[in-house]
Queue: 3 jobs
Job 1
Amino acid sequence: MEIRKTIRRRQLREMVPLADSTIYDMEQRGEFPRRFALSPRCIVWDLAEVHAWLLARRAKPIQRAQHPDVTKRKSRPVKGQDRGR
């Protein structure tokens, strides 16, 4: 059995600049490596899994969200296009 290096939350934050809540949500959706407990008070991540995740994210471009349709807003709707010109 191979012993693999693990990292704690502080080291993970240095590698991945995301909020704890974002990382937790991504873990729940299966989009981020899962944490595991070494003891009741020591939570760690597998360094190799986090590194592989970073390489995969770097290789894949991020798809941006579409712009919202401002004509369908309930507050301050835009009535017509090209109105400011």
Job 2
Amino acid sequence: MMDKVIINIYRDLVMDSNSNILKVAVNSFICFASWLSKAGAVLAMLLMAGMTLHVILEILLRAFFDSSTFILDEFVGYGVAAMTFMALGYTFETNTLIRVNILLTRVRSKLGRQIIEFLCVSTAFSLTSFIFMYFWKSVIRNYERGSTSETLAEVPLWIPEAFVLFGLSIFIIQMLAYFLRIVSGQPLLSEQD
């Protein structure tokens, strides 16, 4: 008896494409992914501003005080890596991420485009998840060992890697939201040009 109730609920929610609850859940997740992507982009912008201020400080110190922070190269490197990954979800969502659309431009049917988009995003999702797992293990290992950079700043290595990990997680969530857009029949990225 209980099995039939669960099967009916599943059929009503998942199998019925007109289900309002499912549409609300899908749209809520897409909105959450969009908000998270925008937050990552704002953080990337703040990192860019911080790097710019650090470069200006370094110029002033060298020009007027014959001194240096001695950490500019290291911190700018960390900032570029963090900024790149933090903005990745937003660039994907806004269709500004560089994509090769050779095949998509030749396919005219909507179903064909959906299948190609689904396969491409599945491949990207798999590769990004693999990279995410690598960084996850590296962050945990560096945190447990207390590893620091071999520079004057002795930055704990898990901190810059955690920014990359967070950016990858935003990108993965954005790809999941795009899966839902594809399945629910919403406009594809290639249709937003």
Job 3
Amino acid sequence: MSTTAIHQMHTTSPLGDVMLAATKQGLAGVWFVHRQEHLPDSRAWVTDNAHPTLMTAATQLAEYFQGERQTFEIQLQPAWGTPFQRAVWQALQRIPYGQTSTYGDIARDIDNAKAVRAVGAAIGQNPHSIIVPCHRVLGANGSLTGFAGGLDRKKHLLVLEATHA
């Protein structure tokens, strides 16, 4: 990614400001600006509030938060991650809106049932928060566990989806 230009913009959400990043190939990331684990160093990125991919992502996120959108229609640029992480992130996209899964379910989905902890670590590194729905993954007993944006945000997203499913 070091030779690929990354464009960024910030947008607002009911859960706080969100940083969006994109390359020519698509949306490279979505992160909460405050209280976010694994926030990338964006100092070298170009701020571009008119970038078409970033504008589309901001619009679709606003529609999601208003309960008007259940799926995202935007090209994702897998700018980061190992092949294993990318497999996990792809599995997350198969969790339907308003439903949840577990870390064990995701491990089985990628044909690596013993990799539950590694799945959890990969989910924590998901660069496309909300759009790749890592918030839909719960502990084996149904408990809210892990979310790089904070458990309060995870709970809010699950309640939002349950309300509009």
